[in-house]
Amino acid sequence: MIFFFVEVEDSYLGPRIDGDIVTSDFVMDMVQHFKNQRMIHKRYIYQIVSKAMKIFQPVTSLASISLVDDAHITVCVDIHGQFYDLIHIFELNGFPSKENPYLFNGDFVDRGAFSLEVILTLFAFKATCLEAIYLARPPDEGLMSDLLWSDPQTSLGRAPIKRGCGVMFGEDVTTKFLTDNNLKLIIRSHEVKDDGFEVMHHSQLITVFSAPNYCDRCDSDGSFI
């Protein structure tokens, strides 16, 4: 592969991948390197992205996750390239591992100033342990796209939406969807909330938004669940 032909200069002082294995020690050193606003060598970027491609290409864009009794998973959404807020979540809630898994529900990058650092961090944790991180990846069109981009409303029924895809939907729609699919709760994202979250539709639907002070314009909190 191409990264085998990329030489790492002696002057490079950042973390290094020894051989072909992305270790947890490397990932933690890389995170600290990013916190100091330094980039890793392009050879290691190639390695991380190459491993991520191997992992994600054979699987569907939606993640199906089973947990054993008493296990937990943390859901984060809408990081939007805000690297320091991502790391703050990890520092509060523990870094990803098999025993402390995370599901990221799309919008990992764009808008924030550190999108490359965010996606490399998520890819690297995935390469270290497949069960440490799950990345749901929102299609561009079709029914699933409409489902992901639809927003809840206080009134019943459905209504047009300003986003350009999806619809506004009421509590009756939420209840029918949960009943028809034998589900108990919808955790959704992609909508900024002042408190970082909002519970609606008789506690059947929770909106979570993990990027605080979104785009340095919104005086909002971030949350995870």
Automatic annotation (TrEMBL):
Protein EC: 3.1.3.16
InterPro entries: Calcineurin-like_PHP, Metallo-depent_PP-like, PPP_dom, PPP_phosphatase, Ser/Thr-sp_prot-phosphatase
Protein name: protein-serine/threonine phosphatase
Cofactor: Mn(2+)
Single GO cellular component term: nucleus
Catalytic EC class: hydrolase
SMART domains: PP2Ac (SM00156)
Keywords assigned by UniProt, alphabetized: Hydrolase, Manganese, Metal-binding, Repeat
The keyword Hydrolase is assigned to this record: yes
Every Serine/threonine specific protein phosphatases domain range: 40-225
Record's keyword annotation contains Aminoacyl-tRNA synthetase: no
GO MF terms held by the record: metal ion binding; protein serine/threonine phosphatase activity
